[in-house]
């Protein structure tokens, strides 16, 4: 969750170099570059390569797009009265965490990537602030995804008991727990002396590498919510399959000589080779089925993207401190920014499956003209 965590400890990795082999070293942009024979001009930093410039440009665009898209979602929720209810408060909480990731975390991570040798040149105090916001915002973003999945699960499986009042209270409680747990994980090293984020001698700024904190933080920030969302989506899939299958099975046999005309939007005709049958499916049920199916697909895509974005980073975060080993810096950078990109995909996913957001966006822009 932090760029400085992507550096290789000076004593952790050694690259065997021959007299004629090319040596690889981090370029100022955090991208591995090469110099023939390991030669480097004394007193001069290696120049930015074209590839480095392209990568930095893409990262800047990612930061800007993540910030603007989540800000647009927040403004829409605040301005449209119909969105002042569940589940849009959960979406707003997710957008807040993702906006903070784009505004406070990703830019400083990029600055660290651009510094020679990925050194932290902004001092100890700012290092602690950055690391705390990094862990806080990324953890809150992850737990907000779990909260959205839980809300959808209860809506589908307990739609009679899960009333509007109950849903409002549950969502408020989940939001409060999300931010409280995220703050606890982020501030634990500062409050309880659980390792040090800043190393003045090596000018490193990274999340505490204390093995016990690595287990605590990775489990609390990722593996626990991962277990929640996977279990919840499995239950959503089973419940939706059972409910929709049961409705299709509710048929009424008719005499073979009776003719039945299909009434559009009122009944769905189902015929077999031996005996005609009709399954009555009122338009209200059909609308609810389509809505629940669309919501289940949205949650599935949201969970899938979340897992693909974050699991490489958190696997490395858990394994590296425990085995005292380290990945090459280039792979750590890739894993880190892949995780950050989840904050860009979140608003795209839950607005793409909700036509109300698209209509609200169009209305918002038309008013500005």
UniProtKB/TrEMBL annotation:
Membrane topology: Multi-pass membrane protein
Domain G-protein coupled receptors family 1 profile: 69-350
Alphabetical keyword list: Cell membrane, Disulfide bond, G-protein coupled receptor, Glycoprotein, Membrane, Receptor, Transducer, Transmembrane, Transmembrane helix
Spans traversing the lipid bilayer: 49-78, 90-110, 130-150, 171-192, 212-234, 295-314, 334-353
Location relative to the cell: Cell membrane
Pfam families in UniProt: 7tm_1 (PF00001)
Top-rank lineage group of the source organism: Eukaryota
PROSITE patterns according to UniProt: G_PROTEIN_RECEP_F1_1, G_PROTEIN_RECEP_F1_2
InterPro entries according to UniProt: 5HT5B_rcpt, 5HT_rcpt, GPCR_Rhodpsn, GPCR_Rhodpsn_7TM
Record family assignment: Belongs to the G-protein coupled receptor 1 family.
Protein name, UniProt field: G-protein coupled receptors family 1 profile domain-containing protein
